[in-house]
Specification:
two-stranded antiparallel ribbon; alpha+beta; about 20% strand; elongated; two-stranded antiparallel sheet
């Protein structure tokens, strides 16, 4: 069941990569699906807006693992310890 979950997309297995535009300087930046954020060369922090099951699934921690779960949960809810 957990290995077939579509909500984990690029969080488990081979990460995916996205090219984004820095809203501060307009430079193209690359961010991997497992990265929570990346710092552009101009210093602006661009957060990963990947939509994942971590927001809503009761089994997300078990499915993606503690490290990835905690990283993304901290972005979703900055007060998350």
């Amino acid at each position: 069941m957990l290995n077939g979950c579509p909500g984990v997309g690029g969080l488990r297995g081979t990460p995916t990569i996205a090219v984004k535009t820095c809203p501060e300087c307009g430079r193209e930046i690359e961010i991997f699906s497992v990265d929570t954020h990346i710092v552009c060369k101009c210093g602006f922090i661009v957060y990963n807006d990947t939509q994942t099951c971590i927001k809503w699934c009761a089994y997300a921690r078990e499915c993606v693992g503690d490290e990835i779960y905690d990283k993304f949960k901290a972005i979703i809810n900055p007060k998350f310890p």
